[in-house]
Amino acid sequence: MKLFGRFLVAISAVALLATASVEAQIKDGRQLPKSRQQVQLSYAPLVREAAPAVVNIYTTKIVRQRRSAMFDDPLFKRFFGDQFSFGGRSKPRVQGSLGSGVIVRPNGIIVTNNHVIEGADEIKVVLSDRREFDAEIVLADPRTDLAILRIAAGDEPLPTLPLANSDDVLVGDIVLAIGNPFGVGQTVTSGIVSATARTQKGISDFGFFIQTDAAVNPGNSGGALVGMKGQLLGINTAIYSRTGASNGIGFAIPTAMINSVLRAALNEGQLARPWLGIKGQSVSNDLAAGLGLDRAGGVLVDQVYSDGPAAQAGIVPGDVIMAVDGKEIIDEPGLNFRIATLEDGSSVPLAVLSEGFIQERKVTLQLPPEDPPRNVTELDGRHPFQGVTIANLSPRFNEELQLDGFLKGVVVLEVGAKTPARRYQFLIPGDILMKLNDVQIDHVSQVLDALDDGAEHYLYEFRRRGRVRQCLIVPNKSFRCKDLR
């Protein structure tokens, strides 16, 4: 009886502990599963719907590999003959790479990263059911690191992933990453959204990313970041890693940007982003204190393009853009992203701090103007700049060249092979001509007027990588340069 009594006491103690444990769990919001169905909760139904729309992408390109001059040495040939000869000093080699993509239209339209297909001579797309197709590039945009592909899969509609509104994504949301890491085959990993609106520099020009801790590795690029509603939230693009493997910090391009690139690809095949017509800087803590703000955030307007969208809306230097269409602007990359995702001609409200008050300014977005026309011209004649191709800068052309939209003048686009300019680097692509033989250069026509065949010397100024240089060429005699500023 004593033993039985002790047993009852032990049972009672366990029951009390279990009851206390359950009560503690309920108090802090955590609960044990209450049914077999809850124990068996799984992502499998979601994966079953989403995974067929994620594809593997394999690319190949021909690269030429330099060989040692040793192979042409007569002594080497004497012993080894021509068994190592492949005609010329470089050997063609096939280089392969892999990535992932997402089918977003049932007729075979696929979104992936530009870096997955860049420079490829052949692109193969393998569906989840192992069917394989050749793909063509509809649009490739290095600035966003997005590319749109098309495959011809016949009349049968392909599985697709619908695009979610990436502005609805919240930190803490559960997400799945689906892709082809290391080429092992389609793989699904899970995690949460670690951050939104992450403006990572160096990944793309419009750095504005969803950050996730779902395992993303090489080969996942171009794959899907999927939400719990089975919709595409973003395209997995990059990882933060010192080893090349996942450290739990991955970045995905949000669907807001994907939509703008996809819209351009399906409409006309050319991407033209709207332009606000300002030049500004992110408001730091130091700037915020001087502007009377209690925290960093927003973009301080430094320059306004005459008659541009911002100027027409009454925005002036010194104003601070705080929000676009109700979405807070933290820094300049965030502003660039918001404007780039909108359509030309759309009217958007901006929250602007001006003269100490937050005001709403309605801006009608436009494409950047091409004024003056680019007038691409190859210089010809008996002078040191023969074979150099130049063009007029304008906001539209600057956008294409990824230059400051406010830069003006004449830019060097190409320098012909086997020309004096190429040999001595009188000019290189990207140089901006400022003055030639005492003529201020603003247009291509002024360069043509200033060039004199057979002149005794050519004195010119140009900007190269932010530095202004002056050079003097005396044909067939000397060439010297100095930095001005």
Overview of this structure, please?
With 485 residues, this protein is an alpha+beta fold. The protein has 4 domains: 49-78 and 91-151, Trypsin-like serine proteases (Thrombin, subunit H, Beta Barrel), CATH 2.40.10.10; 166-267, Thrombin, subunit H; 278-364, PDZ domain (Pdz3 Domain, Roll), CATH 2.30.42; 377-483, Pdz3 Domain (Roll), CATH 2.30.42. The chain is 21% helix and 35% strand. The chain is globular.
Sum up the structure in keywords.
Thrombin, subunit H; 6-stranded antiparallel barrel; 485 residues; 4 domains; 35% strand; alpha+beta; 8-stranded antiparallel β-sheet; Pdz3 Domain
Secondary structural class: alpha+beta
- CATH H-tier superfamily of the largest domain: PDZ domain
Total of DSSP H or I helical runs spanning 4+ residues:
12
Residue runs with pLDDT of under 50 for 5 or more positions:
1-18
- Which CATH class of the largest domain? Mainly Beta
Rounded mean pLDDT score: 86
What global shape is seen? globular
State the major sheet.
8 strands, antiparallel
Number of domains: 4
Distance between the termini: 101 Å
Strand content: 25-35%
Total number of β-strand segments?
26
CATH A-level architecture of the largest domain:
Roll
CATH fold node name of the largest domain? Pdz3 Domain
Radius of gyration: 30 Å
Helical percent range?
10-25%
